[in-house]
Amino acid sequence: MFNDIGPLELVTLIVLAVLVFGPDKLPKLIQDATRTIRKIREFSESAKQDIRQELGPEFKDFEFDDLNPKKFIRKQLDNDDLGLKEIRNGFDLKKEMAEVTDAVHGHEPESSSSSGSSAPSGGSVDMTKKSEKPGDERPPYDADAT
After folding, report:
1. Where are the coiled-coil regions (predicted)?
2. What is the largest CA-CA distance in the chain?
3. Are 52 and 62 in contact (CB under 8 A)?
4. 116: left (phi over 0), alpha (psi -120 to 50) or beta
C-alpha cells in the first residue's frame, strides 16, 4: 500500500502526526483508523463473494483483477491463442520505416544495397527534403484521396 514512502518520509509523517494530534490522542486515532480499514476490507470481500454467487458457476474462475485494463491485456498477451507473440516478434518497426523511406525517396532497400543507403539513420523521415533528381516532379495533389 505504501511502497513508495521512504524511511525519512515515514519518520516525518509520524512526527507530524504527533504534533498535530498530540501523544494522548494518537493511539486512539490509530485504533480507529485500523478498525475502519478492517471494516472496509470485510465489506469489500463480502461484496466480491456476493457478486461471485450471483454470477453463477459459469464464472467460477472470474477474477476481479481482470477488470484492471493493464492486467487484462497482459493476461491476453500471455495467453498466446491468437499468435500475438509471433506477430509482435516478427514486426521490426525500424526496418519497416527504412523500407518506406527508401520507397519514398526512390532508393534501393538497405538490405540489398552494398554500399549503404542515403536514408536517414534512426528510422526518422525527412518530409521537407526535396527530390535530388532534376526531372522529378511531385504528382498532383488529390484532395479526394486524403
Report:
1. none
2. 89
3. yes
4. left
